[in-house]
Amino acid sequence: MKGTGHAVCVGSDVDTDMIIAGRYLRTKNKQLWAEHAFEDYDPSIAGRLDGSVIVAGTNFGCGSSREQAAAALKAAGVQAVVAKSFARIFFRNAINLGIPLFEVADFECSDGDEISFDLENAVVEAGGRRYESGRLSNRMNEIIAAGGLIEYLGRRK
Amino acid sequence: MATISERLLGSPAGSFTDLELSRAYAHDGTGIQALLSFSQMQTKVRSPEKISIIYDHIAPANNSETANLQHELRDFSKETGMNFYEIGEGICHQVMSEGVCMPGEVVVGADSHTCTLGAFGAFATGVGATDMAAIWATGETWFRVPETTGITLEGRLKGRAEPKDVALTYVTRLGMDGATYRALEFIGDGAGSLEMDGRLTICNMAIEAGAKAGLFYSDDKTVSYLSEFGKTAERQETEDCTYAGELHLDLDDIVPVISAPHRVDNAAPVDKYEGTHLDQVFVGTCTNGRYEDLKRFADIVKGKKVAVRTVVVPASKRTLLKCIGTGVLSDIVDAGCSIGTPGCGPCLGAHMGVLGEGEVGLSTANRNFKNRMGVGAEYYLCSPSTAAASALKGEIADPEACR
Prior knowledge:
The structure holds 2 protein chains of 2 kinds.
Chain A (H helix, E strand, L loop, with lengths): L1 E8 L6 H4 L10 H6 L16 E5 L11 H8 L4 E4 L4 H9 L4 E3 L10 E5 L4 E4 L2 E4 L5 H9 L2 H8 L1
Parallel strand pairs in A: 1-2, 2-3, 3-4
Antiparallel strand pairs in A: 1-5, 5-6, 6-7
Helix pairs in contact in A: 5-6
Chain B lengths: L3 H6 L6 E5 L2 E5 H14 L9 E4 L9 H17 L2 E3 L6 H5 L9 E4 L13 E4 L2 H10 L1 E5 L3 E7 L8 H12 L8 E5 L1 H5 L2 H9 L8 E4 L3 H8 L17 E6 L6 E2 L9 E2 L10 E4 L1 H4 L2 H11 L7 E4 L4 H10 L1 H7 L3 E2 L20 E4 L14 E4 L2 H10 L10
Parallel strand pairs in B: 2-3, 2-5, 3-4, 5-6, 8-9, 8-11, 9-10, 14-15, 14-17, 15-16, 17-18
Antiparallel strand pairs in B: 1-7, 12-13
């Protein structure tokens, strides 16, 4: 799976309350989550998410297990997330919703930079530089490539 | 020799394994999302007797939209034969700790604080909604067996220092991502000295250091605790093993601490924040809503009046009943505190004590993230005794001064 997107940069320890606040959780309306994504972190972000790649520091998605955090990013049109490190529940949730993830300790870029990524080869490129990401397991790659865990399990039937 | 996580998951650290789960549970928040995912899987619930649904997050419902969503999951869980716990039964982790979860089990909950149950020597970890839906369908899930940070606890807690102070201290020492992807294993004489309520508090906050699980070995105290629920539990033998990381804490050195907004990993002795004006004190949650917590709070406020509005929410119906039976509830109500339905209370910022802009709160919960318990508000974290001493003064106060 390959793709591109413009960078939307956030800092370290961005928790899932920041990605989607508790006051918006009780709904089935994914578009509502997209509209309010990162509202408590930086309200200007939501409007820039379509076609983006989130670039985060360490421990992205820490805190609550709310899958709405990953679902908000997907509904908003986020193509992939590159982080120095991920919190593990968000990591699983994003994979289960088919969002490509890349863990790169020394990734550098600025808001708006063009980023390209290649899931199978675990490679991200930005600013003319190529970064190797930690590899996901084969199964994780298959789940993402299928579009998420629901689709993956459906194909295995 | 193996860590307890390696023994329970049956594989060495770093390997991937598929395991059938001993039990799995979700609450009204994540369960509704899991049902959305499950309905797209077009399959049946594999082992409903192992699955529980516990209403705790917004319980009772705060509006019609929430009520409608809750109605759907309530009907589904009853139709499929899952174990359903209605509003007021308590917080999911607490309900599972009242004679349900047993040593040696592998448990998954759709909530980040599922790690609480590691206190029993069970491997318990949190997942999201779609993972939970897949577990409903298959009864199993995959794990990457975690490396372990061994936390050696020596000595004994003194004065008004409590298990919560141990938890805030170790999270601060490790940092918010100091144990990401890892398990924490609590060992040493000091670990053995802690009662089950304290072990539950300490394991509960493992996730605040990013850990996948926090575990104690099952011992005489575990066996005795579970026997009160009519359950026969096994002790677990400790083994010498090599840890990926280690931390030593002397319980004698632990003092009452406060984690200031908006990070959990910045605990400092209470005196650093003494005198900070408070608009509200909240006592409860899966961290500190147990009987022993409410008793410690009541022992300090008994016969006095709180100087700030104070919300107390028991972690479960059983906790509430015990508080009624022993007079702890009267002490708390007489002191001027307000009592909420057993459950999560305002912890997730949905109802029952959310703060307004510019307000400052003190809470026995596990997270003080920006805006979590009120947009534009600030929340400090502490133990029940510190909450009690502070409630009496209307400002942050050191519980050691209370006698």
